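Example A, followed by Example B.
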Amino acid sequence: MMDVKKALEAAGWDEEAAADALRAKGLAKAAKKAGRTAMEGLVGVALSDDAGAAALVEINSETDFVARNERFQILVGRVAAAALAEGTAGDVPARRSAATGSMELDVEALLGRPDGTDGDLKMTVTEVAAACGENVRVRRASLVLAPPGGHVAVYMHNSPAGATALGQMGGAVAVAPGANADEAARIAMHAVAARPAYLNRASVPPEDLERERAVLSEQALASGKPANVVEKMVAGRLNKFYEEHALAEQKLVMDDKMSVKKALGADDALCSFARLQVGEGMSALDEEEA
């Protein structure tokens, strides 16, 4: 109340000018908080009406208290919807991930897009940060696109009450035409639980594969076995590597006797995926350096 009175007095009791001054003051406070560590938050998903595309976004806050705030949750949903609309329209630069097949959207460009009111998404994020009193930032955004005739299935985990499009982690999986929708939904759930790093064998970057092969070769050579045996040992362990890290090769969490590609009925039925988890790969030191 004191802030309101001071603003009115400074504005000569002009309510509109006082409101603008209070808003500017709040944005200035939010800017000061922008350097503070934000490792909590939520993942949000938006799925197109025809299930042909889905966007996943991660938005961070400093505490889980703010992540439970309705205004913050509305922001996450709004940014996810914008990522879907702007991403599918091609209005935001994006880079295709060779590992997952998903599109990684340029966050700064996304934040520069209109938010449906008088400003852009960056201003909306700043206003929410000012209202919540914490650093709020959009960390990343991914777009998953199905081929013509295919569809995308999504799954969110640890969702707030009544907010099924939000969660602590989420996944989206694109499958080819003819793939079973129920199986696709199960695989989206599996992807969230199993944390695959790659779509399939072919999507493992050569440098990752060579690094793994070098480690496995060194381990096998240490056994003292003949070269031909070492070669077979490495090949077997590489298969194990694929089974652990490539989504198509993984055994289903719900049925460890069946692989993902077998569940879908074809090796090429799985087209792309994205998986986001709040705070994954972050540390307080990383935040401070950023």
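Example B, a separate protein, is given below in the same form.
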Amino acid sequence: MKNRLFITAIAASFLFVSCGPEKAEKQAKEMPAENKVELTDAQLKNTEIKTGKIEQRSISSLLKVNGKIEVPPQNMISVSVPMGGYLKSTKLLAGMHISKGEIIAIMEDQQYIQLQQDYLMAKAHFNSIEKEFIRQKELNQSKASSDKVYEHAQTEYMAQKVLIGALSEKLRLIGLNPARVNESSISRSINIYSPINGFVSQVKMNIGKYVTPTDVLFELVNPADIHLQLTVFEKDLDKITIGQRLVAYNNTTPDKKYNCEVILIGKMCLLKGPCRYNVILKIMTNR
């Protein structure tokens, strides 16, 4: 009886061991693999899936940021009068187009008359001083006059040249050509000319008002070289590089696209709110 029980136990254990791996393999076959999709031939034909070799490629991404149009400082002109005066006339209005060299205002003041008078008198006095200097130079070379007299004539001659040069620059500063200033052309008014091609941004003075040298008459803008200033979050900054080409548009006409190029990336984080950086784009052309 003991032998029979022992054999039965061995057989039972044998059956248990032999059945274990088969059951595990069967369960493994029944469990579906994760992230695995099986398609039939008909499904492959309908979806038109193409397969290929694994390779490295650049993957593009879309980054949308907001910004505003900025005009660089060299394209923004504040028009003032170096010597001040009364604004006699102007026809400028905000938004008007202006051309370089165009008369945009006429100023009037008695100091313009005084400056022209001083210049003409200095030139007239210079002629006699120059003749005296040449005469004393010849006398000194022939030992007919002392060195002291010659040096005094030379000093007056040089001082008068400096005076004429300074007055000439003052005339140019207010837009007058010294070569055209004579006793019959003295004027109490001067013209103010536009230094750029562009548009009038602001008109800050009215006719009849006195303008000091520090006052601004007009603000002019040259739109030929406008920039786009973007605000980019720190997490997106690695997606922007110098020289990168971007496409911009405004909310008013979203269908009109502008080609831009990144020319500057700010190095300082903006203080208000999350860390953001200024990115400057140069607007190239519109599509």
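On Example B: The longest helix spans residues 110-141.
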